[in-house]
TrEMBL record:
Membrane-topology descriptor: Multi-pass membrane protein
Keyword list, A-Z: Cell membrane, Membrane, Transmembrane, Transmembrane helix
Family annotation (PANTHER family): INNER MEMBRANE PROTEIN YGHQ, PST FAMILY PREDICTED COLANIC ACID TRANSPORTER
Main location: membrane
Protein location: Cell membrane
Pfam families the record matches: Polysacc_synt_3
Signal peptide start and end residues: none
Species whose genome carries this gene: Pseudocitrobacter corydidari
Highest taxon in the source lineage: Bacteria
Name under which the protein is recorded: Lipopolysaccharide biosynthesis protein
InterPro entries linked to this entry: Poly_Biosynth_Transport
Length: 445
């Protein structure tokens, strides 16, 4: 472990993860406070409606949007390392254009689909128009260019500030709505406004950083003109977009699917369990966000990025075990305190899902390593098979075992995700290693 921390890249990952971790701890607590106020301030059915509506807007956004932050990190980080501001400007312009195009498609698609899905989601006439209102947030949810800019320029501290601000505003508004007895409408306004302000902050931070580095005219959308100067850009964005859309169907749509199969009340319970799971799995997400930019600064032909992945995976796995034990100890009394005894059934779901935390945390470096090695299509194939298996299990087990079946399906889905990504990751490493070994042998001859 002492040798691990002598690696500058590993120390940077830990430092940036600490930035994000400090804000995420605050965000998780504030998120629980907001959910607690909403759960206590409304009947379970209305709480479930609010959760389903928000999940629907996020699902549409996740399903359609391009992963432009990965594009900025993949091509923009090497450009900055090589002191090539023009290439970085082209990457940001292309990424911004994709955000605008995908946001427009997402908002139209979300509103067009809603009349056909509202009955299945258990929405009445009033809730239907609420969901329509939430669809106007989709463009801000679909924009990830500013987060890519901040990661590429190593400003994780600004990302941490943004990530803490949105849940703070939501929690503050939820407390006011609860004690002011503003009911369902009060929580709707609060959750909507916090999402809108949080999305705007990212753009402001990113624009300020570009000005500070004298990178002008980057935030001008140029789809085809900029893409022509970035080799392989279209193939990369389509592969990562489809892979993430599949991921969205597996994760973000889970709550919606549980609501469709079992009703809004079950969706509310599943959302509470997912909130605990997401909070417990936060360290892996933080390490992943700081790990990807760092490996893009390393030479994939050497062992260094791959060893960095192993060290980061072992560290995340150890943290996962500790977090799982902590959730087992405090989960039940925390749910009773925060949400009330009427939501205590969610603890049974959490116990089933906890084992998946360690598995998902150990496997977090695989996506970044595959993208670094140019194997985004292999990652897409792995995501396709893993997600198809999960969705089949979610629908089948929910029908047979109710909401508990959804929890088991989520656990098996995480296992499939890690296992299906492991094979292409190992293959990519050995291919690189054999090519380097062959080149050195021929050079010796």
């Amino acid at each position: 472990m002492k040798n691990w921390f002598s690696d500058g890249a590993f120390r940077t990952i830990i430092r940036n993860s600490a930035y994000l971790g400090s804000s995420n701890v605050v965000s998780a607590l504030l998120g629980l406070l907001a959910l607690s106020c909403a759960g206590k301030g409304m009947m379970p059915a209305m709480f479930g409606v609010l959760v389903v509506v928000q999940s629907y807007a996020k699902s549409i956004s996740d399903f359609i949007k391009f992963q432009t932050w990965q594009l900025v990190v993949q091509y923009g980080t090497p450009a900055l390392e090589n002191n090539n501001p023009q290439q970085f400007r082209d990457v940001v312009s292309f990424s911004f254009g994709l955000d605008i195009a995908s946001g427009a498609v997402a908002i139209v698609g979300g509103m067009a689909l809603l009349p056909f899905l509202s009955h299945s989601m258990g929405l009445d006439a009033q809730s239907f128009w609420l969901a329509m209102l939430y669809c106007t947030l989709i463009p801000s949810m679909a924009s990830s260019t500013p987060t890519g800019i901040l990661r590429a320029v190593d400003r994780f501290d600004l990302i941490a500030i943004q990530q803490a601000t949105k849940p703070f505003l939501r929690a503050l508004g939820s407390v006011i709505a609860y004690f002011g007895d503003f009911g369902f409408a009060g929580f709707v306004v609060t959750w909507y406004a916090s999402n809108l302000v949080g999305g705007t902050m990212y753009w402001w931070f990113a624009a300020r950083e570009l000005r500070r580095r004298n990178i002008h005219d980057a935030l001008r959308p140029r789809l085809f003109e900029s893409a022509r100067r970035i080799p392989g850009a279209w193939g990369f964005v389509w592969s990562t977009n489809i892979a993430h859309s599949i991921w969205a169907a597996r994760n973000s749509c889970s709550t919606v699917l549980v609501g469709v199969v079992l009703g809004p009340a079950a969706a509310g319970l599943f959302k509470i369990a997912m909130t605990f799971f997401d909070a417990a799995g936060t360290p892996a997400g933080l390490l992943g966000k700081s790990f990807y930019p760092e490996v893009m600064r390393l030479d994939p032909r050497t062992k260094r990025p791959w060893m960095l992945g192993i060290r980061s995976a072992l560290l995340a796995g150890g943290i996962g075990v500790l977090v799982a034990l902590l959730v087992i100890l405090v989960g039940k009394p925390l749910i009773s305190l925060v949400f009330g005894v009427k939501y205590l059934e969610a603890y049974d779901l959490i116990q089933v899902m906890l084992a998946a935390i360690v598995i998902s945390m150990v496997g977090f470096p695989q996506e970044s390593l595959l993208l670094m090695a140019g194997k985004q299509r292999a990652f897409l194939v792995a995501q396709t098979f893993a997600s198809a298996g999960y969705l089949i299990l979610l629908i089948a087990l929910s029908h047979v075992y109710g909401v508990m079946g959804a929890a088991f399906a989520y656990f098996f889905g995480q296992c499939l995700d890690v296992l299906f990504s492991l094979a292409p990751t190992l293959r990519a490493y050995f291919q690189r290693h054999l090519l380097v070994f062959k080149g050195s042998t021929e050079g010796g001859k």
